[in-house]
């Protein structure tokens, strides 16, 4: 068996990182077998090198090697691309076509971005992995194939399984051996080596002197997080090689090519999961906003009725201070509350006899029968779906807070008493 160093030279791989070397060792160990392999890692780390190593060191090396980007093929045609189709199977199928699994019989197929496969295609792929059988699109005749599958993905497969976007049984069939490629930010010792290799290649390609980095630029290069990994590093090296006249690159010059330098060397959370108290969808957030607006509207109804009944804004203000602050928040600090309430509710200004001979008209206080007439009209306009969503939000909030009404009320932005009333109202 070839050494790791020989494999690096053969496939032009650069790096001495321990995790990177371990990934190459696993690829070399699994190559002589027919075990399915899943290569994982972020976009741009060089996952496509592992399937080539596995194929070249296997007994299938003289057969076909086909690389398929599953994310680049439309959902409607991917079954035809992988498994082929019969003439007349669908509109445009003017002749029978062989798929990749038929063409690569005896060889290796590399399925890049396998996490993007549609669920229907995943079922077909699972059958190929289990017994080597597949059906062409539009055919009822079972065909056999002897293909080794090496897959790669930058998707968190457990999250995809949890969201029912990827079949769990297919994942365990693909990941008999899983090889993880570390991101470039975890290979700090290899960053400058890779940059020098790219700079040398582009110097020869464009017939220019090779660019060199100052010591400060090298430190900046190693501190940067490289979200695009090796692909981004290669692009930066090419840009600088073409655009810079001065072949010695300073830290300031390098920094102008690195996006988002303000947070380049700060720690970041990758794949941070949502808290249990967060609402999972935008639709739920929208209904939460509507729910809060309904609560504020009810509070305004109550305050309006009090003002119409008492006809004394100062008294109402004193008795409902908490309610007013809840509705207007800190805005009450910036103006006179009595004047603002009077303006909002369009109540008549206090009448002064000395400035007018007109007899003031006292606001009519609604009777007990029609006091809630306007509130009933508003309730009639509310849709059933909003009420159902309100019930759903209350249920979810109670579940997240283990039935504790105080915590659930705080989360929903209403008082515990209001929540208790709604629980009774909806019989929850």
For this entry, give a set of tags:
428 residues, alpha/beta, five-stranded parallel β-sheet, two-stranded antiparallel sheet, extended
Mean pLDDT score: 81
What structural class results from the helix and strand content? alpha/beta
Tally of strands: 11
Q: What is the count of DSSP helices, taking H or I runs of 4+ residues? A: 20
Work out the radius of gyration.
34 Å
Strand order of the largest sheet: 2-5-8-1-9
- Outline: extended
Low-confidence stretches: 261-266, 274-279, 331-337, 344-363, 371-383
Beta percentage is 5-15%
> What's the helical proportion of residues?
40-55%
Distance between the termini: 68 Å
Main β sheet profile: 5 strands, parallel
Describe this structure in words.
With 428 residues, the protein is an alpha/beta fold. 49% of the residues lie in helices and 9% in strands. It has a five-stranded parallel β-sheet, with helices on one face. It has a two-stranded antiparallel sheet with strand order 3-4. It has a two-stranded antiparallel ribbon with strand order 6-7. The protein is extended and about 95 Å long.
At a glance:
It is built from 20 helices and 11 strands.
How is this fold's topology laid out?
Elements: H1 4-10, H2 18-30, E1 37-40, H3 49-56, E2 65-69, H4 78-83, E3 84-85, E4 97-98, H5 100-103, E5 108-112, H6 119-131, E6 133-135, E7 142-144, E8 148-153, H7 157-162, H8 168-174, E9 177-180, H9 188-205, E10 212-213, H10 215-223, H11 229-243, E11 248-249, H12 251-255, H13 282-310, H14 313-319, H15 321-328, H16 337-345, H17 373-381, H18 384-400, H19 405-412, H20 416-426
Parallel strand pairs: 1-8, 1-9, 2-5, 5-8, 10-11
Antiparallel strand pairs: 3-4, 6-7
């Amino acid at each position: 068996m070839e050494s790791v160093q020989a494999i690096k030279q053969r496939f032009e791989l650069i790096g001495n990182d321990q995790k990177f070397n371990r990934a190459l060792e696993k690829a070399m160990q699994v190559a002589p077998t027919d075990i399915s392999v899943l290569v994982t890692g972020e976009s741009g780390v060089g996952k496509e090198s592992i399937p080539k190593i596995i194929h070249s060191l296997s007994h299938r090396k003289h057969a076909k090697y086909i690389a398929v980007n599953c994310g680049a093929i439309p959902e409607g045609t991917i079954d035809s691309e992988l498994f082929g189709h019969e003439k007349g199977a669908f509109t445009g199928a003017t002749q029978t076509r062989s798929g990749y699994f038929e063409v690569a019989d005896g060889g290796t197929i590399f399925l890049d971005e396998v996490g993007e496969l549609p669920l229907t295609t995943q079922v077909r792929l699972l059958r190929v992995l289990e017994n080597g059988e597949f059906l062409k699109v539009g055919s009822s005749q079972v065909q056999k194939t002897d293909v080794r599958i090496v897959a790669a993905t930058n998707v968190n497969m457990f999250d995809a399984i949890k969201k029912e976007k990827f079949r769990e049984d297919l994942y365990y069939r693909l990941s008999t051996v899983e090889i993880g490629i570390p991101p470039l930010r975890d290979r700090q010792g290899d960053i400058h080596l890779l940059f020098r290799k790219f700079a040398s290649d582009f110097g020869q390609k464009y017939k220019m002197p090779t660019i060199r980095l100052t010591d400060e630029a090298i430190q900046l290069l190693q501190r940067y997080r490289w979200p695009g990994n090796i692909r981004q590093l290669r692009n930066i090296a090419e840009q600088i090689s073409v655009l810079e006249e001065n072949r010695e690159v300073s830290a300031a010059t390098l920094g102008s090519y690195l996006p988002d330098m303000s947070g380049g060397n700060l720690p970041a959370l990758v794949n941070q999961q949502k808290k249990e108290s967060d609402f999972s969808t935008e639709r739920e957030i929208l209904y939460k906003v509507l729910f809060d607006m309904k609560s504020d509207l009810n509070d305004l109804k109550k305050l309006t009725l009090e003002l119409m009944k008492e006809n004394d804004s100062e008294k109402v203000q004193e008795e409902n201070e908490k309610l007013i602050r809840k509705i207007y928040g800190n805005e009450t600090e910036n103006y006179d509350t009595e004047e603002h309430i009077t303006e909002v509710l369009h109540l008549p200004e206090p009448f002064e006899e000395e400035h007018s001979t007109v007899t003031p008209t006292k606001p009519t206080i609604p009777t007990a029968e029609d006091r809630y007439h306007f509130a009933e009209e508003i309730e009639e306009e509310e849709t059933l779906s909003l009420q159902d969503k309100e019930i759903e939000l209350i249920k979810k909030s109670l579940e997240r807070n283990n039935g504790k009404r105080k915590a659930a009320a705080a989360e929903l932005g209403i008082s515990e008493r209001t929540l208790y009333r709604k629980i009774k109202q909806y019989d929850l």
